[in-house]
Specification:
Keywords: Membrane, Transmembrane, Transmembrane helix. It comes from Acinetobacter bouvetii. This is DUF4405 domain-containing protein. The protein is an all-alpha fold. It is 83% helix and 0% strand. The protein has one domain.
Length: 140
């Protein structure tokens, strides 16, 4: 029986769309609020709400990836370094995202910067994971 690690088109494009929304809203919010230190506006509040909603949707998609894509990749032992790294980054982002709301106040600054830096790194890491997977699939 042949298994494919490749994510179905509809799911993949929806995943990319949500990832793009998360990336853009996260970048905008971090830039405007944490680097530029602008006063919160209705726009930044709505950007943050959009980021939170997209994060919730992404966690659902991550569950779908765990059920099929990641299980098959583990079984086939394909693209494990970038894939497990990506999964670790997603778990860190989920935990730090929760920490932004529920951690003790004295942790907030560190949790915020952890979330920002892991988010930035993951924006760069996802294309590496995808391209590595494409390369490995074509080289078979």
């Amino acid at each position: 029986m042949t298994f494919s690690v490749k994510i179905p088109h509809t799911q993949r494009y929806f995943l990319y769309l949500i990832w793009l929304i998360l990336s853009l809203t996260g970048l905008y919010f971090a830039y405007s609020q944490d680097w530029q230190m602008q006063e919160p506006s209705d726009l930044t509040v709505n950007i943050l709400k959009t980021h939170g909603i997209a994060a919730a949707i992404f966690l659902i998609l991550l569950g779908a990836l765990l059920a099929v894509h990641i299980q098959i990749a583990l079984k086939l032992k394909r693209n494990l370094v970038t894939g497990l790294s990506m999964l670790s980054l997603m778990v860190l982002l989920a935990i730090s995202g929760l920490g932004l709301y529920y951690s003790p106040e004295e942790w907030h600054e560190n949790v915020k910067w952890l979330h920002i830096w892991v988010g930035l790194f993951s924006i760069l890491w996802l294309p590496i994971h995808i391209w590595t997977g494409i390369y490995l699939r074509k080289s078979k």
